[in-house]
Amino acid sequence: KEFLVEISGTTVTITCPLTEGSITWKPTGVTATNDERKYIIENHDSTPANVSCSSGDKTYHMYLNARVCTNCEELDALAVTGIITADLLITFGVLILVYYFSKDRKGRASPSAGSRPRGQKVQRPPPVPNPDYEPIRKGQREVYAGLESRGF
């Protein structure tokens, strides 16, 4: 048989496995007699304690090492499962949205740092003419008439 320990906030309730007779509790050397099977420790300070309950010739011993806190919230397994499931669903939803919105932009050219700005074209001044390198313009081929093409 085992003790039943319930913790709520800073209150620890211990239930003795004995069911018959007058139950005597001995928590940390202090003797307290109760006719109830339950021993309640109010404002427990999380220090380890030796607790025993006895009735007649039967005695049960327990080492209590319960960590308690004043601002703790108790969650059951269903609440924890719900929180984790909701978190995963939200995460996958965001991933799917990011995937579909980025999928449409794959075919488009993204503007990089060296590209020209879109919209109105900025007029540039004409390049400074270089007399050594003149472009061939229509009607001015006689300038280059003396040059012969090389055969490859």
UniProtKB/TrEMBL annotation:
The keyword Membrane applies. The keyword Cell membrane applies. InterPro entries: CD3_esu/gsu/dsu, Ig-like_fold, Phos_immunorcpt_sig_ITAM. Gene3D superfamilies: Immunoglobulins (2.60.40.10). One of its GO terms (biological process) is cell surface receptor signaling pathway. It comes from the Eukaryota. It is found in: Cell membrane. Keywords: Cell membrane, Immunity, Immunoglobulin domain, Membrane, Receptor, Signal, Transmembrane, Transmembrane helix. Its main location: membrane. One of its GO terms (cellular component) is alpha-beta T cell receptor complex. GO terms for molecular function: transmembrane signaling receptor activity. It is a single-pass type I membrane protein. This is T-cell surface glycoprotein CD3 epsilon chain. It comes from Rissa tridactyla.
